[in-house]
Amino acid sequence: MKNEQEKQKILEIIQEYNNGPSSLIQVLNMIQDEHGYLPQNVQKLVAEEMGIPFSRVYEVTSFYSRFTTEEKGECTINVCLGTACYVKGAQKNLDELKSRLGIEEGHTTEDKAFTLTSSRCIGACALAPAIVVNKEVHGMVNLEKLAHILEIYE
Amino acid sequence: MRDVKSGCTRVLVCAGTCCVSGKAFVIIENFEKELAAAGILDIKVVKTGCFGLCSEGPIVLTQPDDYFYAKVSPQDVKEIVEEHFMQGRPVQRLLYKDASNGEALSLLEADFYKKQHKVALARCGVIDPEKIDDFIEQDGFKALEKALLTMTPGQVVEEIKNSGLRGRGGAGFPSGKKWEFTKNAAGEKKYVVCNGDEGDPGAFMDESILEGDPLSVVEAMAIAGYAIGANEGYIYVRAEYPLAIHRLKIALAQAKERGFLGKNILNSGFDFELSIRYGAGAFVCGEETALISSIEGRKGTPQLRPPYPAVKGLFGCPTLINNVETYANIGKIIMMGAEWFKAMGTAGSPGTKVFALAGNVKNIGLVEVPMGITLREIVYDIGQGIPDGRSFKAAQTGGPSGGCIPIEYIDTPIDYESLGEIGSMMGSGGLIVMDDSKCMVGIAKFFMQFMVEESCGKCAPCRLGLVRIYEALARITDGNGTMEDLQELEELAEMVSSLSFCALGQSAPNPLKTTLRYFKDEYLAHINEKRCPAGECEKLLNYEITSLCIGCRKCLKACPAAAIIGKVKEQHVIDKTKCIKCGACIESCAVKAIIRA
């Protein structure tokens, strides 16, 4: 959260989805979808607004794998690592992306261009191995196709 | 003016996750555009849930003339409208065809559908999931009406109990008993919960039901609420399923607007409200008590049972938790009766089961089959066998908590007990087929890595034991394994199974145990011969250039480690001390002169 404008937006989301402490995960999901990540100052704001201890907000953000506290790059590449994708070579795609982008899973390149993440299963098993680039699913990805996809976003 | 020569009045476009990734929404848009441009007003475009045969997507069906188009692209739409709809000449090149004789087949004639029997998926691919009228037209809410207006809560519970329905989420606990326990539990306030935290990687049954027929779950939860005396319910869905969430939201709003949710439903005096809660990526939340913690907005760690959720669950109140597919069966049971349901499947496991068939199999998709069908029938009749000329090695059921079933047991009937006996489990319905190029030690390691990351950390056997198992497996696949590692694996597997706090840890060693049981020779080859029989473990592979080499220098340029030496038109050689075993050379070789062994 870098400025007043962002803060206002986050406050609006909290207001819309806050139905008491049990809606914490909902609120965090919504903020992350809008804001991209959940830095400490955002977590503190959520804690204050919802009237729950910061420690509990932190506990939840750090427990669930979908939540991230690191700022995302312009382009997020999510490699599906479900079993169907694994048996069709998802690991190779992930390894290639790691070496090409020079980052590990869950991290962002220094120029903030790419973020590399992985998912348990996106439920598109017929398209295995699949990757999701900025919410768009690409199916049956091999090293050649991967290079092609990267060119579009580079 | 229109000139329609075909008998088509409805064109159904699959809008499940796979087909949407194949641009199904653009296809729908194009149909609407082209039909309008041609002045055709009486052909309705219907956006449906998953048809099941995902590997042939995007799928388009025409009704009632019954043509089945496969792998349709947005550019094909104009041709279908002009040729098929206007000229009465179905577009042959796009029709789904029999693999053996090339004849065009209708949906139900395809081998994929022949042995299927749809109960939970009956409306998926038939109705527009975003239109409540479609649902009502297909007998939607009739079961709710019957339950509320003609049955007592006790009768509803009795019917579910008599049907013998067992929980479709994995463990197979008799659903009717759960309903009865929750009904009989003391407490004013009770809750109904739907577990849609489909965490098993490679499984998408619940997703497809929520995307294709969300109101069936809504109806069933209202029936459950009436039966156990609850006025409030929660549907817990993974945030990774945006389309399912979107359609559920629409379903809830429409049901509320039409009075199927809210106050005094169908003038029965019964009130019921439903809300959606999102998961945020934690496999352990499939466990009932962890799921409850998560709905309450806390981290998803399991709690000690008893008290069971039926007695003390959500916010400390008696809570009924069933899985999505379990709920999808309820409406039919109420309408058709327990006897009808019991006539399907086996005595111990009545009814049908939905499987997500994926991996190394020709037909990938969603299948619903009567319990008791054999694995062979699913893989070879419905799935049409293994592609690329390879052979069947194992099938994995039950996801990370299940096991790998070898070819010797391919005739095992699929039911809760039979799968348990061979060390696997039904699980939620993931069914991954693996061909002979898959290393079984590698598969065990893959699942173990998953479990290490998903262990919630509450108890030591699971938190630490799984890491030790993973490390030993990694040593073996890296070529550093010893016979002591094997011994340690067997001991650790038992220890973690018997000492872990919840079902996640107790079942986590299953992939390891079954691969040790059925594929021990592969473990031994890795340890004793430093060899991976499937040729998958990179560190155990050696690359060699054979005399087929024409000396074209392609591999030399492709090698990122500069490990290939050789002159033009002379056989090249790989310097094994430099080789990083990436396989780039094999991919670059035009004459297949490089072998990996």
**Approximate strand percentage of chain B:** 5-15%
Low-pLDDT runs of chain A: none
The CATH homologous superfamily of the largest domain in chain B is called: NADH-ubiquinone oxidoreductase 51kDa subunit
One letter per element, helices H and strands E, the order of chain A comes to HHHHEHHEEEEH
Instruction: Give the percentage of residues in beta strands of chain A.
Output: 5-15%
The level-1 CATH class of the largest domain in chain A? Alpha Beta
Overall mean pLDDT score of chain B?
Answer: 94
| Number of domains as seen in the coordinates of chain A | 2
Distance between the termini of chain A: 26 Å
CATH T-level topology of the largest domain in chain B: Rossmann fold
Radius of gyration of chain B: 27 Å
List low-pLDDT spans of chain B: none
Number of β-strand runs of chain B: 18
CATH superfamily of the largest domain in chain A: Glutaredoxin
Strand order of the largest sheet of chain B: 7-8-6-5-9
- Portion of residues in helices of chain A? 40-55%
The major beta sheet of chain B can be summarized as: 5 strands, mixed
Tally the beta strands of chain A. 5
